[in-house]
Queue: 3 jobs
Job 1
Amino acid sequence: MRIPRVSYQNVTGIADKIVGLGREVAGEVFNRTSWVEAGEAQQAKGSEKLKALRAQAEADVHRAKAQTAETRQKAAQGSKAS
């Protein structure tokens, strides 16, 4: 079984969401509006970090596909020249 790598950015995005939720819950329990707002903002920050990582991963996939297509094109051109 292979254990996936966990990047620092993934951990901070998830941590922001967890800590933000804790702040929001604490704000609700202790009736502190500023804590609730801070928690919501921190959760939003974590969500945006995770969205950015997802977009980066998709871009990496597209880049790899383009590189593969370029390699195939060069190979095809090389076989025609012979």
Job 2
Amino acid sequence: MSRGLCLAMLFLHIHISTTTPAMNIAMFCNTYLPMLGGIENSIATFAEDYRRAGQGCLVITPEMNEARESTPEVMRVPAIKNVGGSAFSLHLPVPGLISARMNEFAPDIMHAHHPFLMGDSALRNARRLNVPLVLTYHTQWDRYSNFFPNEITKNIVVRLSVEYANLCDCVVAPTASMERLLRGMGVEAAIEVIPTGIDLELFKMGSRTRGRERLGIAQDAHVFGYVGRIGPEKNLAWLARAAICFCKEDSKGMFVLVGKGAFSDTLRRMFEEAGMTGRIVVAGPFAGVELADAYKALDLFSFVSLSDTQGIVLAEAMASGLP
């Protein structure tokens, strides 16, 4: 059974008469495609599965430079784009805009993917329309210390996320360990553990030869690497130090990063200072078959993040047959 169908059936079981043939699900998120990341992929995967299962699904998300236009399946709300030089967009609270679309869409479920910003809109509209509110808890906010100026701010953010969760009818945790963490943080609402599914067939299509040619890596190189957002919260400085040790001991050793993020400059400097300039490849983000090829280009997949709630890339790497 697909994960999206599983979650849709959960909603039906908890909140809606089983005689109802289909639901309309409104998904509110601060980030979405074409931005590439675990949260964005998870939302897109569930939305696709909902529709495949015969459910109506509308994603409400801020405009981005790469995608400003709304479609029948995605509502782009006006936003300040590239906040602080990042790819993040901050939505503008245009009075009545989202409410009017919700009145037209007539959702049976409000599904928030962030407790802040767009999550506020999900909460307000859920209360206004008297429909259930579900939150998927994607982020361990306490592990993102580099985003907060001090411990007080971080603790406030974590507390607010817990209070938001307790206003919901159900909280979705991507893993059982995340469910335990949420309980320890004070979440008292109902919690369901539902991981994000992946396209197994896609990752079987990857080619080691194509991947290495695209990355500019010799076919006989010994390659280990990482796929995902390149940020300090992913513990990549620690991984880079390990990679430098490996490359010093193995003349054919290479370290590959597939993803995007400003922290890549720091990692490059670490290799330069160690005299290993040519032994690191920062490939940028890939999708589709190119992503499958990038996985296959590795001999070993490494994942050392202390902040992820699920790590979809772990499942993708396993589907690619990587140790």
Job 3
Amino acid sequence: MKSVGENIKDLRIARKITQTDLAKTLYTRSAISKIEHSNQDLLYENAKVILEKLGVSQTEFEYIRNNYSFTPKEDIIYSFLNITYNTETATINELLKKCSYLADDPDITHIKIILTAFKNDKDQLGLTLAKKMLIPLWNDQFSKYDTWTILDLHILNMIFFIFDTETMNQISKQAITVINTKYPFLKSLKASFLLNRGILLMRSGNITQAIQALKSTCQICQKNRQYDKLLIAQTRIAICNNDKDLALHYINILHELGATDLSTSLKKEVLLFLN
């Protein structure tokens, strides 16, 4: 395995970035040279900025360092971070199988609990069981942290549905603040928090606040060309405005794009709120 500095050099050259450009606001050009030759340590906070300049996430960088392969734990975490909807049943089940091989790892144990609860959030009984599994995890772990890592944020986004409106508002505000200040590149995750905040506000009858959250989601998704989340947000805004025809129009677009499970799930939302 190559050193951190060697991989940074390879990525920098591949992207035609000079040492001077990479060093801006962080180091001198000579310091970058020393880092690339393993003669100077790279500070963690600066590493995040450098990787962002190189256009890779920390996970992707570790994947490259490991000769374009993941360790079993990294594979689970990477797959977990890319699950967006509880309708991805096949993916969730496959990931749960992988988790069973690393049962003694605390991070993987958390992921297994969350995946099990996440896929069960399909009816009132499933929601009750999910809350029973996840609330202790929140109380014993995440509620006590001063800040959250990227993995923490993804976990919180997936267990968002268990919270009451007041707790949800506190988590979403803190999560978005953490993303804005520490991980501004996590725009897709920020959109997911806003989407989840929107549906929970709808369920609690706070329609005005729900529309605000969903419109913010639309702005992010339009800039980042995240058309699936954009259509979800537009569907929910239509539901908030009691426009069933428009909501079904957006759902049909999702269906035509191949998002069958997602469109089916959204139709249930239309029946729940507009029937």
